[in-house]
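Shall we go through a protein fold together, starting from nothing but its sequence? Label the sequence line and the structure token line clearly, so we can match residues to local backbone shapes. Would you write everything just below, so we can both look at the same thing?
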Amino acid sequence: MAGAIIQLKAEVPKLDFGVVHERSTAHRLAVQLEQGIMLRHLDWNVDCEYDRDEDQLKKTLLGIAGCISGKNTDEVLPDIIVHHRGSQGREHNLVVIELKKDSVRDACDSAKLKLFTEPNGHYRYQMGLYININSGRFDFTWYKDGLELASENDSRLQIRSDNSSAAVRRVRPRGRQMSTAG
């Protein structure tokens, strides 16, 4: 996760985290996660707002409907998931991620992450992660086995300009080539 955050913050042109919608940030973070997974030759799929549960059209979490006023369904769309598409079980569901901007604590997302990681639940993700993006700083809260674990932030992550860091991916405007810099 740290590598994906570093790469996201190093993209050129940079995302203005204070302005762009959380979905834009989630998408770019998913791209960086996927690239890191591919570099390691792992066979995980990274998806944004994935709405499938095998043959079922929508993902549901019983009990979520009442978490915020106006929500009258148990249907959920996690911001990012790392999983094996078309498979069920803990060994196929690695991490579920919820992102928010300027929201230190989101009770609904916390409830979702607890339910997604519940070891006896339907999805049984190995880990859950809540990310709050506050003025470009990423604050993390981890979940495992239906419980909230430690919180931390990205202040320890450094984007180094020397060649010892991973290549920085340059994001291209439409129709132009991408390049890397080290």
